[in-house]
Amino acid sequence: LQLPGFRSLPFWSQYDAPSNQTRVAYQDPSLTWAVQHLESHADVIRQEYQTSAPQLFSDYQVDTEHNTLHQGSWDWHSYMQKGTTTQGHAQFGKQFPETTRVLDTLREKGLLFDQVPFGYAFFSTLHGQSHIDAHAAPMNLRVRVHLPLLVPSVTTAADDNTTTPTTTHDLPCGIRVGPVTRPWVTDKALLLDDSFDHEVWNHTKDIRVVLLVDLWHPDITLPERKDIIALFDHAKQEGWWTAEG
């Protein structure tokens, strides 16, 4: 489902090291607000993750298409999967109450990419010596946000979000979207269009943790969003797709 005419960039953000600011493409107001909202709560989100996540089982579903994409270990702790709050949402809210409030605010603002089967929000823990293979999203309706909470220290030396095309071997821990490869910078949101071919790797011994959040593409108007949600609601009623698969 690729809708024409949208602004399209591999990355929608650029970290400016001198000012320590995340700059959003086109100075888009809705994405800028979402970035500032998430970054302002990074400390408490990280604290909740470090306190609770290590004691919890991952809800990453190994029987889905995602399981064929990666080598190594990849854990999820989900607020939302496939556009709906997961069966464990109450548990997520109990273990991560402040994170839940942060994400609930995005939902209330109409920014969270929910009610559509391509919407996700979860803690993504990529363990050391792991790789998520190159793939592309089946639609261009969303902008994906990574809020980096724990980044292997060997990566943070590259603090300028390198924009020169590289291979996956040039960074020990990073992400490539289209021809552009970047590291993560702790507490600085990274926005990307995952309808581009992209891959992720962590060749270090440490974990890399981001809060992954899908937002509506800002070029989709509110009436269009309602139409898209209605389209998928109809498909669900007809049995053409379910939240489970």
Give a written overview of the molecule:
By secondary structure, this protein is an alpha+beta fold. It has 5 helices and 13 strands. It has helices at residues 29-40, 42-52, 89-95, 97-108, 222-237, and strands spanning 13-16, 21-24, 70-71, 74-81, 84-85, 121-126, 130-135, 142-150, 173-177, 180-182, 190-192, 198-202, 208-216. The strands form 3 sheets. A 6-stranded antiparallel sheet has the order 5-4-6-13-8-11. The protein has a 5-stranded antiparallel sheet with strand order 3-7-12-9-10, with no helix packed on it. Strands 1-2 form a two-stranded antiparallel sheet. A hairpin with a 2-residue loop joins strand 4 (74-81) and strand 5. Helix 3 (89-95) crosses helix 4 (97-108). Residues 157-166 have low confidence and may be disordered.
Features of this protein?
245 residues; alpha+beta; 6-stranded antiparallel sheet; 5-stranded antiparallel sheet; 5 helices; 13 strands; globular
TL;DR of this structure?
The protein is of the alpha+beta class. The chain has 5 helices and 13 strands. Helices cover 24% and strands 27% of the residues.
How would a textbook summarize the main sheet?
6 strands, antiparallel
Helix content: 10-25%
- Judged by helices, strands and strand pairing, the structural class is alpha+beta
The total strand number stands at 13
Shape, per Cα inertia axes:
globular
What low-confidence regions span 5 or more consecutive residues with pLDDT below 50?
Answer: 157-166
**Rg from Cα:** 17 Å
